[in-house]
Design brief:
Blueprint: E1 4-12, E2 16-21, E3 24-29, H1 32-37, E4 44-53, E5 58-63, H2 66-75, H3 83-92, H4 95-103, H5 107-110, H6 118-128, H7 132-137, H8 153-164, H9 169-182, H10 184-189, H11 192-203
Parallel strand pairs: 3-5
Antiparallel strand pairs: 1-2, 1-4, 2-3, 4-5
């Protein structure tokens, strides 16, 4: 099983990226947040990989750190949640924010995620709530290319506001990543309106 890939990005699609590892191109499906954080074609990347093997296909799913990979695998244990929906959930919310929503049984916030209806949100809370504390306590292997980033509801709300202003999802998240990487500690303390203004400045 492939568990990790490091190489050069050949090209990026809407929901995947092709990584050249010593002359072999691997198609890796990623969340929109991860896609937005990756460098343009020609840049280098390193992704934690989950390999999904079926009779008719072998599919690779990529994550920027081990925490997001673990959450992806955990999501797939929930009845009715497959890899596609798990990636959609990761596109809409950072692992830390998702853990908080599930722990608080915040069904309203979970149903704001793409593809998550009320019944699915209730199943997520019922089946994962007891596992969130253990999950949060596990060590995380952070991205080698960026410092660890703390994220809560403010960043998600800022991304939604930017998309409401007409910016594509990938562009909105990339702008917010730029703000975070410039000063992760300060970014974690910014209010939604401050994050939006900082992101707009990075896009100017």
């Amino acid at each position: 099983m492939i568990a990790f890939l490091s190489g050069q990005i050949l090209h990026k699609e809407q929901e995947s990226v092709v990584v050249d590892v010593q002359g072999v191109g691997y198609e890796v499906h990623v969340s929109s947040r991860t896609l937005g954080s990756l460098p343009p074609p020609g840049g280098k990347t390193a992704l934690h990989i989950s390999t999904n093997v079926r009779e008719d296909a072998i599919t690779l799913y990529g994550f920027p750190d081990s925490s997001e990979k673990r959450l992806f695998l955990l999501l797939n244990t929930v009845s009715g949640v497959g890899p596609k929906l798990a990636l959609a959930i990761l596109s809409g919310m950072e692992p830390a924010a998702f853990c908080g929503a599930v722990s608080l049984k915040d069904v309203k916030r979970l149903t704001a995620l793409p593809g998550v209806g009320k019944k699915t949100a209730e199943r997520l809370c019922m089946e994962l709530a007891d596992k969130m504390q253990t999950f949060a306590a596990q060590p995380t292997t952070a991205k080698a290319s960026a410092p660890p980033i703390s994220e809560g509801f403010a960043l998600h709300d800022a991304a939604s506001a930017l998309m409401n202003l007409g910016y594509p999802q990938e562009t909105a998240w990339q702008a917010l990543r730029t703000v975070q990487q410039a000063d992760p500690v300060k970014a974690a303390q910014l209010r939604v309106d401050e994050l939006i203004r900082a992101a707009l400045r990075s896009l100017a």
